[in-house]
Design a protein that fits this description.
globular; mainly alpha; single chain
C-alpha cells in the first residue's frame, strides 16, 4: 500500500525523508521486493493442492491475523478513521477480485510471464493518475507507456508448451494491473488520513471474509495439501502479504520513499530467478526482449514523472 502512495506522488503519512545529501540503500525494501517477486512462484506451487479462491482466502486470513496481532502488540489503533471505513470495504472488494485474477491467471500461464506483465503496473498507475488526478504525462512518459505495453505484447507472444491457454492467463494478469491501479488510486485518501497499516488491515480482512465464503462453496483444496504446498501458503501469507508490507514501510522511513521505490525494478528479475530454480521455467528470447522493453518503459515513465514533479 505505501509503495502506491509514492507512485502517484503522494507520500505516505508519517514517511521520513532523509536529509539532502545523505544516502541509505533501501535493503529492507529490496527484501520486500524479493518476497513479492517470489510470490508468483509460491502461488504456482500452492496451486498444486489449493483452489484459487481457497489459496487467496487462507493467505489473506493469515496475513490479517498477523497485522492485527502486531497492531495490538504495538498499541496501534486497529481500524481506520470512521470516515475511511466504507472506502476500505470497497478496497477489500477490489483486492479480492485482484488477487483472484492473479492467482487464477497462474493456473494458465507461467510465473515468468506473470512477473514481467505485472512489471507494467507502475505504467498503468501513472496513466490512471493522469486521467483521474490531472498528473500529466509528458512525451517521455507516453513513450515509456507505449514501450511497456509493446514489451508485454512481446512477452505474450512467447510460446509455452506446458500451458495450452497461456494467452488467456497472460490476459488475466494484464487485467490485474488494471484492478491494482484502481485499488491504488482509491486508497490514496484513506491512506493519507488513516495510514497504510490500518487501511491495509481492514482491506485485507474484508477481502478475506468475501473469499472465505467463495471458497466454502467451491472448496479450499483440490487435493490434500502436502508439505510443499503448505509451506508455499505460509510463505505467501506471512512473508509476501504481511512481513513484506512491514519491511516496505520501515524502508521508506529509513531510506525515503523515492529510493525505496527504485527497488521495484528488481521484482520481475527475482521472479525469473526463482521460477528458473524452483519451477524449471525457461526464459525465451521473446520474454527477454519484452521484459527489457517493460523495464526501459517503466524507467522512462518514472523519469518523466520526477522531472515534471520537480518543475512544479
Amino acid at each position: 500500500m505505501q509503495r502506491i502512495a509514492k507512485l502517484v506522488r503522494l507520500p505516505a503519512r508519517g514517511a521520513v525523508v532523509p536529509p539532502a545529501g545523505s544516502f541509505s540503500f533501501p535493503w529492507l525494501g529490496l527484501l520486500a521486493v524479493l518476497f513479492w517477486g517470489a510470490s508468483f512462484v509460491a502461488i504456482r506451487i500452492a496451486l498444486e493442492a489449493y483452489s484459487p479462491a481457497g489459496l487467496v482466502s487462507l493467505r489473506l486470513v493469515l496475513a490479517t491475523v498477523f497485522l492485527g496481532a502486531v497492531s495490538r502488540w504495538k498499541g496501534r489503533a486497529l481500524l481506520p478513521e470512521p470516515a475511511d471505513r466504507k472506502r476500505c470495504l470497497l478496497l477489500g472488494a477490489i483486492l479480492s477480485g485482484h488477487m483472484l485474477l492473479q492467482t487464477h491467471g497462474l493456473v494458465y500461464t507461467s510465473a515468468i510471464h506473470t512477473g514481467w506483465i505485472i512489471g507494467l503496473t507502475p505504467l498503468t498507475i501513472a496513466v490512471g493518475a493522469h486521467v483521474a488526478f490531472g498528473q500529466r504525462l509528458g512525451a517521455l512518459g507516453w513513450l515509456g507507456t507505449g514501450l511497456g505495453f509493446l514489451g508485454v505484447l512481446f512477452v505474450s507472444l512467447d510460446a509455452l508448451p506446458d500451458f495450452e491457454q497461456a494467452r488467456f492467463g497472460d490476459g488475466l494478469q494484464l487485467l490485474s494491473c488494471g484492478t491494482w491501479t484502481l485499488y491504488s488510486l482509491l486508497a490514496l485518501r484513506p491512506v493519507r488520513s488513516s495510514g497504510g497499516w490500518r487501511v491495509t488491515t481492514l482491506a485485507m480482512g474484508s477481502a478475506a471474509s468475501v473469499l472465505v465464503v467463495v471458497a466454502c462453496v467451491g472448496g479450499f483444496t483440490t487435493t490434500p495439501p502436502g508439505l510443499r504446498a503448505t509451506a508455499a501458503l505460509a510463505f505467501l501469507a506471512l512473508a509476501c502479504s504481511a512481513l513484506a508490507f512491514v519491511l516496505w514501510m520501515v524502508s521508506q522511513e529509513r531510506a525515503g520513499a523515492q529510493r525505496t521505490a527504485t527497488t521495484l525494478y528488481a521484482e520481475p528479475l527475482f521472479t525469473m530467478l526463482f521460477a528458473t530454480l524452483l519451477l524449471e521455467e525457461s526464459l525465451g528470447w521473446r520474454v527477454a526482449v519484452g521484459g527489457l522493453a517493460v523495464l526501459v518503459g517503466t524507467g522512462l515513465v518514472a523519469r518523466d514523472t520526477r522531472r515534471r514533479a520537480t518543475s512544479r
